[in-house]
Amino acid sequence: MTSVPVNRTPAPPAPGPAASPVPGTPRAPGTAPGTVPAPAGPEPSPVAPVSSVSPSSPAPRGRAGPPSRLRSVPGRVLAIAGGSVLALALLFGALSASFQDVNDGLKIIGHDAGPQVVATADLYFALSDMDTQVANVLLIGDEHGLGKGRQRALELYERRRSDAGRAVLQASALAGTDPAERRTVQAVLDGLGRYERLAARALLMDEQAGHPAGPPPQRVLEVYREATDLMRLELLPMAYNLTLESGTIVRRAHEERTAALRTGQVLVAAAGILALGGLVWLQVFLARRFRRVLNPALLVATAIAGMYALTGFTVLGGETDVLRQAKQEGFDSVLALARARAVGNSMHGDQSRYLLDPERADTYEQTYLDKSQSVLYAPSGNLGAYYRAVDEGVDAYPAATTRFLGLIGREAARSGPSGRQEAIIDVLRRYREFQRSDVLMRRASPREAVEQLVGPLTTRFEAYDAALVKLAGIHRATFDRAVRDGEERVDELWFLLPVAMVSTAVLIVAGVWPRLSEYR
Amino acid sequence: MRPVSVRAALAAAAGLVVLLAGACGTGRPESILDRETLVIGVKPDQPGLGMKVGEGRYEGFDVDVAGEVARRIGARGVRFVTVLSSNRQRFIEEGKVDLVVATYSITPPNRSKVTFAGPYYVAHQDTLVRAEDEDVDNVRDLKGRRLCQAAGSNSWRRVKEERQIAVRLVAAASYSECLDKLRDRTVDAVSTDDLILAGFSARAGSAFRIVNAPFTDERLGIGMRKGDLDGCEAVNRALTAMYQDGTAERLLKKWFGASGLDLTFSVPQFEGCA
Predict the structure, then answer these.
(1) Domains in chain B, start-ordered, CATH in brackets?
(2) Which residue of A has its CA nearest to B232?
(3) Helix (H) and strand (E) counts for chain B?
(4) CB distance A12–B270 less than 8 Å?
(5) ipTM surpassing 0.90, yes or no?
(6) pTM for this predicted structure
C-alpha cells in the first residue's frame, strides 16, 4: 500500500532539480545556516512571495508568463504543504464519513430492525398461541383434567394475551414514522380487541354448554370460527408482514452501507496516497532546497498520517465483514427462525382446529401440510408421504446429499460451526418426533386424539419449539457480538481521529514554518 | 517541474475517478424498478383472472392487479403478453417477461427458481355445483358423484387421491368444457381454485353455486427474475398499500362479487422475498 505512493510521488520532484539547479544553487549559501539566521536569511527578495518576480533572481528562466508565486520557493513550499493538508483533510473527511456510515448501518441493523424482528415475531407467536389455546379449551370441554388441563390452557391464553398487548406496543414504538407500518400496527391493535371479545364469548358459551372432550356444539363453533378467521386471515398475516418489513429494512441498510463503505475505502486510499505523496514531496523538496537531510516534524506527520490511513483502510474493510456477518450469519438466521417459529405455532394450532371443527377438518389438514412444507420442505403430495420424507431426510442428515428447502431446511443446508450444527440436528430430530405424534393423533379415535393432542403432542411441540429458540439464540449471540465489535472498533478510531488531525496539522506547520520564515 | 506536477495531479485524479467509478459500478443487478415499460405475463383464457380480449388487450383481476402494482412501483408503461402454466418460469428466466401475474402458486420448488412477491391473494380449492343441487356442503359430499377432470390440471387429485373421496371422474379438455358439462348435467361438480370457479360462475349468472367449503390454500404470487429483491420488496409494499386503501377490495368485488364466493379483503401473509 504505502510503497506505491512513495514510488510514485517523489517522481515529480525528480525532474524538478534537473530543471532548477540554476535557481537552487545561488540561494544555497543563504539557506544553509538556516537555523539561526532566520530573519537575515535570503537577501534578494525579503518579503517577496507576493510580488511576482520572485525572491530568487533566477526564477524566470525565459517564461515571461503570468507572474506566479508558485515559482518562488516559499510559494512552492506553501503549495505543496497546502495540497498535502487538503489531501489530509479529504482523508480524514472520508474516514469520518465512512465511520458514520458504519455506525448508521450498525444502528439500523443492531438497534432498530433487529429488535423489531424480535418484537413482531413475539407478537405473531403470542397471537397465534392465543387462538390455539382457545381451541384447546373448547376441545377439552367439561373434562377439565384432560392432558395438561383446561386451567393451564386458560392461563396460557391470558399470558399470551398480555404478551400480545406488550408486543404490539413495542412494535408500534419501533415502527417509527413509516405510515404504512403504523397503519398495520393500528389495525392489529383494533383487531386484537375484536378477537378478545369473540374469544371471550366462545369460551363463555362453551362453559355454559358443557360438553365432553371433542368438538363443541355448533353455536359455540360458529363463534369460534369467526374468531379464528379474524385471527388467521387478518391479524396473523399483518403481524407476519411486519416481521418481513424489518427484514427489508435491514437488507436495504446493509446494501447501502456496504456500497458506501466500499466507496469510502476507495476515497480513503486515494486521499491517503495523495496526502502521503504530498508529504514525501514536501520532505524531498525541503531537503534539496534547504540542504537538510530530514525534517523530523514532517517525518512524524507523515508517519501518523500513513498509519492512520492504513489503519482506517483496514478497519473499513473489516467493518464490511462485520456488517456482512451481522446480517448473513446473525440477522438472516434470526429472521428465518423467527418465521419458522411463527409458522410452527400456527401449524400446531391447526392440529387443535382440525379436531375442533370436523366440517373444516380437511382445510386444517391441508394448511397443516402447507405450513409443514414451508418449515421443512420434502417433496410429497400428501401428509403420509410427507411423514415418510421427513423421517428419511432427518435420518440421513447431515451426511446425505439431499438438500432441504423451507425455512429450517435452508438453515440446515448451510454449514456452520459445530455448536450450531448440533443445535440444528436437535431441531430436526425434535421436529421429526413432533411429526410422528401428529401421525398418532390423526389415526386415533376422536376421543384419544384429543388426549393425544393436549398431552404428548403438545409436549413434543414444546420441545421442538424450545430447540428452535435455542438455535435462534446462537445466531442472536453471533449477531449481537458482531454489532458490538463493529461499534467498538469504529469508536476507537473515531476517538483518535481528532488527535490525528490536530497532530498532523501542528507537525506540518512546525516542519514548514521555520523554513518559510527564512524568507521573511 | 510544473508541467510534470500537473500531469501527475491529472493522473492521480484520473486514477481516483476510475477507482470511484469501479466502486459505484458494482451496484445492484438489474431490477424491475429500472424498467420504463414493464412486460407482464398474464393468462389468456381464465375468465375473471386473465382473459385475452383483443390483440395485446387482456382483462381480469390478475390484469388489474398487475396494472396497479406497475403504477405503484413507478413504471411508466405496461405491456401485457400471454403466458401459460407451462412456459411462465422459462419466460421469466429468459427475460421475456418482467413480471408474471397468472394464478402462479408460490410453492417451495417454484420459489427456488423464481422470486415471488405476494401472495396478492390466497385462493382456495373449492367446488362448483349446479345451483339447484343443495346436497353438497363440503368436498366429502362429492362421494359417488361425477367430478370433472380438466386436462393438464391436478385439482382432481386433491379430491380423489389426497382426500380419498370416491368420485367418478369425467374427462374434459378444459375448465370451460367442464362448465358446459356441468350445465348439461354430464358432470355434477367442478373442483379447482375458487377464483377460477368464481370467474366462470360470474359469467354464467345464477346457474351455478360455489359450495364455499375451501379445502386448500393456494398462494397466488407475482413472479419475477430470481434475486430481484429490490423489485420484490417494492411490489410487496405496493400490495400492502392496495389492501390498506381499499383498492384490492374494489378489484375483488369487481371481478368476483357476483359469484357468491366468500372473499377476503385483508392483506395476505407474504412469503418474504428470497
Answers:
(1) 33-123+219-259 (3.40.190.10), 125-210 (3.40.190.10)
(2) A248
(3) 9, 13
(4) no
(5) no
(6) 0.79
